[in-house]
């Protein structure tokens, strides 16, 4: 009998209250030590807040173990320096800084040579546009900068929040390819609405609903179960009751649920 | 013609003084969202530190030549230390509590002049300075006091040094990025609080230098000097665009010139009103200031 390696990141009872809003009511999730773990859920389920809570970018309580070390009391910069690369939902690119300056900011003095060869190998365009203000880049190019920053430091974990959001299909494919390649070396926690990307990249998934963990398990299993996918993610069988099975993948489409953006696109 | 030259250089000198105070104020607000109402007090501390040293209390310092330069360095250093202490002891514990921060800096801004009054009295004290700087220089037919030129030169040096710092150093890069998105800077593993302290130190040093050299311009020091100048520094920051060094420089020149010309060609005192009108007119046309940065 084989045992799977201990999770790299273990989150338990993560709660976030901002002002009068109780956004997370107790999220549990594990990020596997290998491959990609997808964090899924309908819009407003608390995916981005979970990521921000893990990183300490919003006030939170609960437990966040990174390789067994409790980090919930650490400041964001201290936690990130322990080996986390973060590509946020809005890409977090500094618009008035050049591409080279955006990358230089992600360097961690004293943490070894930054992996510019790797980054420029994956994104040759970033070398060509090194002196260009990042604010003048296209959405896809800005996403390249955001992902490149996560790959520069030999991180232990990459967190990518909706990296394909708003990108052209061709760029979605490129981003998925890069994340797939990155995940061969570094575990990835991927927040994603595009189920085709999830299907391609993720081994495991965690589904949030109303600020709580609603489901955990193999990603392929959830996506193959049209009923569960419809119930948890709101995809597939638009116009149907969602109770019965539907051909996985081929029929997955945004459902009639107005609060749902989860979608299936070609990658 | 000579009047226009004199008014222009005097206005630029005053603008230079505003810039020395406003540059730090602008960077502090841009990076930290802190409205530092104690910034004028840092200028006063610089002025009094220089006055104290140049009055013979600091060995090696005095009113002439290199001894006066040492007094200016001392006054600037005292202002820098005060700024760092202000950030560490008052601002940092109140981080993310803007109302309390404002009240605390207003409190410090009131307490420092009161403390200076209690120690050295409320009356203005003659400011000792090198004899060479008390004269005038003939420029395009006008006799321009040297102290204006010293102020302009100091502001240009500070502007160049700040631009080099921001564009060429990693700390400067962190400050520029932090002005744009502070949270993302921390998410890259950078302790942005160190940048806060550094920016306070730089801002305090520039304001204290303004106080030190401003003593030459005014010919005296008094406890309220910094506080009374602070309002114009805030006008400069708003006009220039929050967090913009170039904007602060442009706005400083505009405010200094408008104030001088309005005071001379209308009634004395209308210069201040003219500055307010200039601010209102600019904000009507460009609500985000000269450089388009609201915050």
UniProtKB/TrEMBL annotation, chain B:
It comes from Streptomyces endocoffeicus. Keywords: Amino-acid transport, Cell membrane, Membrane, Transmembrane, Transmembrane helix, Transport. It holds the Pfam family BPD_transp_2. This is Branched-chain amino acid ABC transporter permease. It is found in: Cell membrane. PANTHER family: ABC TRANSPORTER ATP-BINDING PROTEIN, BRANCHED-CHAIN AMINO ACID TRANSPORT SYSTEM PERMEASE PROTEIN LIVH. It is a multi-pass membrane protein. Belongs to the binding-protein-dependent transport system permease family. LivHM subfamily. The keyword Transmembrane helix applies.
């Amino acid at each position: 009998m084989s045992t799977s390696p201990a999770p790299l990141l273990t989150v338990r009872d993560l709660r976030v209250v901002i002002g009068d809003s109780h956004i997370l009511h107790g999220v549990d999730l594990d990020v596997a030590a290998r491959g990609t773990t997808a964090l899924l859920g309908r819009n407003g389920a608390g995916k981005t807040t979970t990521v921000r809570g893990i990183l300490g970018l919003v006030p939170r309580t609960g437990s966040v173990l990174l390789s067994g070390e409790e980090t919930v009391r650490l400041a964001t910069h201290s936690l990130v320096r322990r080996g986390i690369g973060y590509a946020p939902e809005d890409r977090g690119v500094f618009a008035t800084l050049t591409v080279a300056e955006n990358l230089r900011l992600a360097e961690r003095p004293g943490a070894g040579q930054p992996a510019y060869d790797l980054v420029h190998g994956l994104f040759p365009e970033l070398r060509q546009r090194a002196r260009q203000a990042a604010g003048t880049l296209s959405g896809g190019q800005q996403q390249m900068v955001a992902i490149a920053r996560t790959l520069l430091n030999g991180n232990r974990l990459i967190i990518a929040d909706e990296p394909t959001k708003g990108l052209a299909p061709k760029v979605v494919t490129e981003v998925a390819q890069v994340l797939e390649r990155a995940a061969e070396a570094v575990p990835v926690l991927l927040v994603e609405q595009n189920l085709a990307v999830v299907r391609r990249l993720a081994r495991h998934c965690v589904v949030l609903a109303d600020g709580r963990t609603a489901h955990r398990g193999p990603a392929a299993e959830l996506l193959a179960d049209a009923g569960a996918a419809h119930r948890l993610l709101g995809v597939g069988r638009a116009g149907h009751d969602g109770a019965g099975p539907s051909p996985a993948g081929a029929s997955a489409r945004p459902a009639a649920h107005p609060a749902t953006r989860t979608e299936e696109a070609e990658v | 013609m000579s009047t226009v030259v004199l008014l222009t250089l005097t206005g630029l000198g005053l603008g230079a003084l505003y810039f020395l105070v406003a540059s730090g104020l602008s960077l502090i607000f841009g990076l930290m969202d802190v409205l530092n109402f104690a910034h004028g007090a840092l200028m006063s501390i610089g002025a009094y530190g220089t006055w104290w040293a140049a009055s013979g209390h600091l060995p090696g310092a005095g009113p002439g030549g290199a001894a006066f330069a040492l007094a200016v360095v001392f006054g600037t250093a005292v202002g820098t230390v005060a700024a760092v202490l202000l950030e560490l002891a008052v601002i940092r514990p109140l981080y993310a509590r803007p109302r309390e921060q404002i009240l605390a800096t207003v409190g410090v801004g009131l307490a420092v002049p009161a403390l200076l009054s209690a120690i050295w009295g409320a009356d203005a004290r003659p400011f000792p300075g090198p004899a060479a700087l008390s004269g005038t220089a003939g420029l395009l037919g006008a006799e321009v006091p040297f102290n204006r030129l010293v102020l302009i030169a100091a502001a240009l040096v500070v502007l160049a040094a700040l631009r080099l710092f921001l564009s060429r150093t990693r700390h400067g890069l962190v400050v520029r990025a932090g002005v744009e998105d502070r949270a993302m800077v921390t998410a890259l593993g950078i302790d942005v609080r160190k940048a806060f302290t550094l920016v306070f130190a730089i801002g305090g040093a520039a304001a204290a230098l303004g106080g030190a050299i401003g003593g030459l311009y005014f010919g005296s020091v008094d406890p309220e000097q910094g506080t009374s100048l602070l309002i114009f520094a805030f006008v400069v920051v708003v006009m220039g665009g929050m967090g913009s060094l170039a904007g602060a420089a442009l706005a400083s020149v505009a405010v200094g010139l408008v104030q001088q010309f309005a005071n001379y060609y209308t009634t004395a005192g209308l210069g201040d009103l003219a500055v307010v009108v200039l601010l209102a007119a600019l904000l009507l046309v460009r609500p985000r200031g000269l450089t388009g940065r609201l915050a």
